[in-house]
Amino acid sequence: MAIKELSLAAKTTIDGFMSGINKSTIKGSGLEFIQYRSYQPGDDLRSLDWKMFARSDRYYIRESEVETNISIRILVDASASMNHSDGDFKKIDYARYLAASLAYLGNLQGDAIGLYVFKDGGIFSMSPKQDYQHLARMFYQLEQIKPEGDFTKPIHYKELYAGSQKRELLIFVTDLYQKNNEIFDLLDTLNTLKHEVVVFHLMAKNELELNFKGYHSFEDLETGETLQVDQSAARKAYVMALNEHLEKMRISLLDRNIYYRMLSTDQPLDQALRDFLNQRNKSKI
């Protein structure tokens, strides 16, 4: 039942307004004409436009736009900090629905979808495939995620090099909680693969506003350390420091040519995806 609910939630989120939005395009011998260009040595002679040659006595290549399917690998942070909750809703719940929706969308478009879960002690991996049975298995694995422990150590990153030689889209869903820059080290590793990398940074509303009603003692979910906080006295300085930190991370990722988007877990998922995909489309123009 849980898998059916996750599948239905993903379908409901995606259907109706995202059809066709993540198709990549290349110039080639497709059906929709774009432009002519001068013939260059080595060009496929089958692409020559002989009618243009008859009119101009010059050789031209007819270029068209064709749709291409892409390979998408969805990476999910399953370290203990993803258990952070705002009410009854945890970050990992939002990550589950976000990953499921993106997987459903990719499958709908005919793209190959893979799943990589960064769990304590290693990486669970499902290589990209394009079929509904694979998607159903992915939904099952998303439901099984139980965040615990620290972030995956670099020794396990070899799983990430098992992709194809073609450029891929890597989507990383994480709260960017790190102790020793380990997540940015991972992102630097991903950058060496020469793929497009997108980071969805999940934050709960209560941590964005420092509004934990009734709480004065806070525990680090990964280290177990506790801290006493007077929220009302610390809120203004906390919010200012947090905003500076988020901006620093955003700029740092942009400097790496990594797309960054912070999502609050109280934000409707369909709106978050619509905003992301619209912005991504604009950046491709």
TrEMBL record:
The record places domain DUF58 at: 35-245
Q: What Pfam families does UniProt report for this protein, alphabetically?
A: DUF58
What superkingdom heads the lineage? Bacteria
SUPFAM superfamilies from the UniProt entry: vWA-like
**Protein's recorded name:** DUF58 domain-containing protein
Organism field: Pedobacter psychrophilus
